[in-house]
Automatic annotation (TrEMBL):
The lineage of its organism: Bacteria, Pseudomonadati, Pseudomonadota, Alphaproteobacteria, Rhodobacterales. GO terms for molecular function: acetylornithine deacetylase activity; metal ion binding. Residues 181-284 form the Peptidase M20 dimerisation domain. Its EC number is 3.5.1.16. The keyword Zinc applies. Gene3D superfamilies: 3.30.70.360, Zn peptidases. SUPFAM superfamilies: Bacterial exopeptidase dimerisation domain, Zn-dependent exopeptidases. It is an enzyme of class 3 (hydrolase). Its cofactor is Zn(2+). InterPro entries: ArgE/DapE_CS (IPR001261), Bact_exopeptidase_dim_dom (IPR036264), Peptidase_M20 (IPR002933), Peptidase_M20_dimer (IPR011650), Peptidase_M20A (IPR050072). It comes from Roseicyclus elongatus DSM 19469. This is Acetylornithine deacetylase.
């Protein structure tokens, strides 16, 4: 295990400063008070400029910019992107979410773990490169991206037209495990249509809610089929399916003429969204074949996030593996990340590896250990030196 030199005071100060800026994702609405991604971007830009980096802002949606900073290398080596999202989930029911506090070696507050800790680590990584007088052949890019918690507009735009990199590290909370793969996510809305009538004479109507019940029964086999008979991936396991939001009807005294069910399909690298929709569509056709009066439709994806499948043989995985083993003195864990992230959108081989644990992310008591952040900085510095030293 190597000595950690990353400065805990600076890490805590940067992180608490950023947690205090409420950058809650607006989930499709125009940014409102409390949805300060732009302020987060401006704040991060100021911090990057204070470190002497070349910086820029790219407005992705009105009032919602990505921000980046570049530490120039000597030339000739790979450019490594350290990416993190600027937004957080909401704070409903979370007392003190925006009043960051440092207690018993942990920084508490919304966004502390997911994932402003990574941004604080990236800033300290730059300082450590300077203080240790490391010369890198390639550039280090730091990116703060909007909208990861919703449609991933920031990383999608980065992949299309952002600064180019050869490798990327995304410091989502993995507990410092190395995650070169994750499933993708496809959500879609199933709608049944019926005929409304007064509920004193139900036989005169067609009950869309009752018809949805038949759809639900038919689809309730799908997750088991995927786990039993579906394809699998060495890190990601099997695809998964769940039915998670339902609404229908408008008043209890009327037979409902509509019902909508939003479903969530987690898919493996290599599975195509078109095939997934076609599979669900065939199952709906099966229900309709048994019930000719049942009218059901399937929407286009309401959410589609790509799967990640960076080869374990990639240079970025090898560099992180050596870095983790040198820094922690323990074997590196190579595993799939549980959720979908910005990583597959960045336009280069990307790996997720960062401080903190996913159990704290999105919770009503979010925190990250400063010690994890210190170790993350050592790992990032060692991986950068390995790739471009
Ligand atoms: Zn996150």
């Amino acid at each position: 295990m190597t000595e950690t030199r990353a400065d805990t005071d600076r890490l805590s100060a940067d992180l608490t400063g950023m947690v205090a800026i409420a950058s809650i994702n607006p989930f499709g609405a125009p940014p409102r008070p409390g949805h300060r991604e732009a302020e987060m971007a401006a704040d991060l830009r100021t911090r990057l400029e204070a470190l002497g980096l070349e910086t820029g802002l790219d407005e992705i949606a009105p009032g919602r910019p990505n921000v980046w900073g570049r530490l120039k290398g000597q030339g000739g080596g790979p450019t490594v992107l350290l990416a993190a999202h600027l937004d957080t989930v909401g704070i409903e029911g979370y007392d003190g979410a925006l009043v960051p506090r440092v207690e018993a070696g942990r920084v508490h507050g919304r966004g502390s773990c997911d994932m402003k800790a990574a941004l604080a680590c990236y800033l300290e990584t730059i300082r450590q490169i300077r203080e240790r007088r490391l010369t890198l052949s390639g550039d280090v890019l730091i990116a703060g991206l909007i909208d990861e918690e919703d449609q991933m507009l920031g990383s999608r735009a980065w992949g299309r037209s952002g600064q180019r990199a050869d490798f990327a590290i995304v410091g989502e909370p993995t507990g410092l495990a190395i995650c070169p793969a994750h499933k993708g996510q496809l959500c879609a809305v199933i709608r049944t249509e019926g005929r409304a009538t007064h509920s004193s004479r139900p036989e005169l109507g067609i009950n869309a809610v009752e018809h949805m019940a038949e759809v639900i029964v038919a689809l309730s086999e799908l997750d088991g089929c995927l786990r039993r008979d579906g394809p699998d991936h060495p890190l990601c396991g099997h695809g998964r399916f769940s039915m998670n939001v339902i609404q229908g009807g408008s008043i209890a005294s009327a037979i409902p003429d509509w019902c909508e069910l939003e479903v969530d399909r987690r898919f493996l690298p290599g599975e195509s969204p078109a095939d997934i929709l076609a599979d669900i569509g065939r199952r709906l056709d099966g229900v309709m074949a048994l019930r000719p009066d049942l009218r059901v439709s399937l929407s286009d994806p309401s959410l589609l996030a790509a799967a990640l499948d960076t080869p374990v043989s990639s240079g970025i995985v090898a560099a992180l593996r050596r870095a983790v083993e040198t820094v922690t003195g323990a074997p590196a864990r190579i595993e799939a990340f549980p959720g979908a992230t910005d990583a597959p959108n960045l336009g280069c081989p990307a790996v997720i590896c960062g401080p903190g644990h996913l159990e704290q992310a999105h919770s009503l008591n979010e925190w990250v250990e400063v010690r994890q952040m210190q170790l993350a900085v050592e790992i990032y510095v060692a991986a950068l030196a390995d790739l471009a030293g």
